[in-house]
Amino acid sequence: MSDLTLYPADIAAMSVGQLAALPPAQKAEISRNLDEALAWLKQARAKFDAALDAAYGEQARAARIEAGKDFGIVHLQDGLLRVTVEVPKRVSWDQAQLAAIARRIAAAGEKVEDYLDVEYSVSESRFNNWPPALRAGFEAARTVKPGKPTFRLALVSEE
Predict the structure, then answer these.
(1) Is 24 helix (H, G, I), strand (E, B) or coil?
(2) Please, are residues 105 and 115 in contact by the beta-carbon 8 Å criterion?
């Protein structure tokens, strides 16, 4: 065990300032350990979810059929364990067909926004490749905000 090792309880008890003041080697170790823990937890969660589906999936599907629903929540009982199984509804829309519908709505003199949620966007690579005159017409509608920073730490060997 290295003298650098900080346990999860130690990290949780430390303030942001204390963590920021740690030596570089400890920061690198914590970053690596957290990445490994996240990967392990994600893998373990996927495996356990697969086990739950193996144990309760068929029963949950039967309960949804009995309730006359394809999506939503059903509750199962396994001894003292109450199992809540939720199957969310994921809806996607064919963009070409919606565009055709929007054109028909507009051609009929109706407001498209009364029927469809319309969001316009321009890909950043397309915008950057436009000639300056074309870009100028769009710049007033463009807002650029920074995203959340990500950090990758790696110790470099001293030579």
Answers:
(1) helix
(2) yes
